[in-house]
TrEMBL record:
Keywords: Membrane, Transmembrane, Transmembrane helix
Regions that span the bilayer: 90-108, 120-138, 159-180, 192-208, 220-238, 250-269
Protein name listed in UniProt: Uncharacterized membrane-anchored protein
Keyword hit for Transmembrane helix: yes
Length: 280
């Protein structure tokens, strides 16, 4: 089975867990997936599925997941990962997916407004930093998932501290894009810009198809596609002069804001749907 098939099967079976077992397995799942970078994806997902099936079987017999394992879930996960062989290819894929995913999210939207040279160097440096930051965040989530539950801090305070820590890590990446100046700049107006956008979209389609479980969510993918379409339209000869007058600039700003609102709405609806599914 492919990784996507194993994940889908896991998602189909998890609703069968009772509340106690679901909480136990969800923490176990997060910990394993966020600390198994050097392990083969297929083997990791096979083990996660097998453990889920064991918990479901024990549940039928009136035994809880915690009783079934007889020890802390973190220790079970650590022992499981130690038995799996390391796979450098999987780790390299994660780095590449993160790097190019960030570039897609930040680079294509800036292509909506032609006429200004784009600092490629700043984007590359920002993407390198962001890749390391995201890997650090994911790793931290994995290592703290059980400490977070054991902490005596109020839930709202935990969330606030987590958001602030995330913002502190993410801010430098966006600051680099706007304030860092490098000699690697290129003007992507006209036909060249259209060609680069189309090439980027094709690469993004392949990237998202091959990435684990679709690396980019549909709302983010929508925003990128919308930005790319605007970028192409503003470079067409018939519309290239649109940005030279105030009316055209206002229309462009409205379209970009509309895309942001729609994407945000889609993200909120998706989060609400996922939470609803988890509560069932």
């Amino acid at each position: 089975m492919k990784v996507e098939d194993l994940i889908e099967r896991n998602n189909d079976l998890r609703p069968g867990l009772n509340k106690e077992n679901k909480e136990f397995y969800d923490d176990f799942l997060v910990y394993v997936r966020t600390t198994s970078w050097l392990k083969d994806d297929i083997q990791v997902e096979e083990q996660l599925l097998a453990i889920l099936q064991d918990i479901l079987e024990a549940q039928k017999n009136g035994e809880s997941a915690r009783d079934y394992f007889g020890q802390s879930p973190k220790l079970v996960a650590d022992n499981l990962l130690k038995k799996l062989p390391n796979d450098g290819v999987s780790f390299a894929k994660i780095i590449l997916y993160t790097f190019f995913g960030y570039l897609a999210i930040t680079f294509l939207p800036t292509m909506t407004v032609p006429g200004k040279p784009i600092d490629i160097g700043a984007y590359v440096v920002s993407a390198m930093y962001m890749t390391m930051a995201i890997l650090l965040i994911v790793r931290t989530i994995g290592t703290l998932v059980y400490r977070y539950k054991a902490s005596k801090l109020a839930g709202w305070l935990k969330n606030v501290l987590g958001i602030l820590a995330g913002m502190l890590l993410l801010f430098p990446a966006f600051a680099m894009i706007y304030w860092l100046k490098t000699p690697v700049r290129i003007n992507l107006d006209g036909t060249l810009g259209i060609f680069v956008i189309i090439l980027f979209l094709l690469g993004l389609a392949v990237y998202n198809k091959t990435a684990k479980q679709g690396f980019l969510s549909k709302p983010v993918f929508f925003y990128i596609i919308f930005s790319a379409i605007i970028g192409i339209l503003t470079r067409l000869p018939i519309l290239s002069g649109m940005l030279e007058n105030k009316t055209g600039q206002i229309i462009l700003a409205v379209l970009i804001l509309l895309a942001c609102f729609i994407s945000t709405g889609m993200l909120m609806w998706q989060a609400h749907r996922d939470k609803k599914d988890d509560d069932q």
